[in-house]
């Protein structure tokens, strides 16, 4: 199965008329949708920013799209210049599973108390050892991460976990949401 990165590299390679290799600000787990992902690549091809965006999008499947493009200085690196990453984890809380958005949100029919979840979440804000929230195959050098904010809010049947940090461990957000 092609990754989103490979799919985007293939589309941009067509626009550049030569192979393009991307560097991404972050990686997402399977089943997680990235919004606002920043990538960079080096190329000798000269195109307008509009041509990069439109050309990429015409060569991408309907579930992947490029929003903007910008020439960056040579020292820019999408991964190492990123100051934060952010996840929004959405739980549909109802007795019946949703027919809409079923691949973009999780469903839980058991009792959930969003206010208590929000209160508990505040204990994870700051610098902590998140070993208990990492996947067994996590390759991060250190489990110490700084969570800038972690908010849990209810919007009707939706409970939204909004978390921002400089970096995350493998499955960290998924495990926190669990």
How much helical structure, as a percent, in the residues? 10-25%
Kindly state the mean pLDDT as a whole number?
A: 92
- Per DSSP, the total helix count is 5
Poorly predicted residue ranges? none
Task: Detail the topology: elements first, then pairings.
Elements: H1 4-16, E1 23-24, E2 39-40, H2 49-58, H3 78-81, E3 85-93, E4 106-108, H4 114-121, E5 126-129, E6 144-155, E7 158-165, H5 172-177
Parallel strand pairs: 3-4
Antiparallel strand pairs: 1-2, 3-7, 5-6, 6-7
Explain what you see.
The protein is of the alpha+beta class and 178 residues long. Helix content is 23%, strand content 22%. The protein is built from five helices and seven strands, in the order H-E-E-H-H-E-E-H-E-E-E-H. The strands form two sheets. The chain has a five-stranded mixed beta sheet with strand order 4-3-7-6-5. A hairpin with a 2-residue loop joins strand 6 and strand 7. Helix 1 packs across helix 2. The chain is globular. The model has no long low-confidence stretch (mean pLDDT 92).
Outline:
The chain has 178 residues and is an alpha+beta fold.
């Amino acid at each position: 199965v092609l990754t989103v990165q490979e799919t985007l590299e293939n589309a941009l390679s067509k626009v550049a008329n030569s192979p393009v290799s991307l560097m991404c600000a972050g990686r997402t787990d399977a089943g997680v949708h990235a919004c606002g992902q920043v990538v960079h690549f080096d190329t000798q091809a000269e195109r307008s920013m509009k041509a990069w965006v439109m050309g990429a999008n015409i060569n991408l499947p309907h579930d992947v799209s490029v929003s903007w493009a910008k020439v960056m200085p040579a020292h820019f690196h999408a991964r190492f210049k990123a100051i934060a990453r952010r996840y929004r984890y959405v739980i549909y809380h109802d007795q019946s599973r949703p027919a809409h958005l079923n691949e973009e949100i999780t469903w839980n029919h058991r009792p959930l108390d969003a206010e208590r979840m929000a209160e508990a979440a505040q204990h994870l804000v700051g610098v902590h050892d998140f070993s208990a929230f990492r996947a067994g195959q996590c390759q991060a050098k250190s489990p110490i991460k700084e969570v800038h904010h972690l908010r849990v809010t209810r919007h009707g049947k939706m409970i939204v976990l909004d978390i921002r940090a400089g970096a995350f461990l493998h499955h960290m957000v998924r495990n926190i949401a669990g």
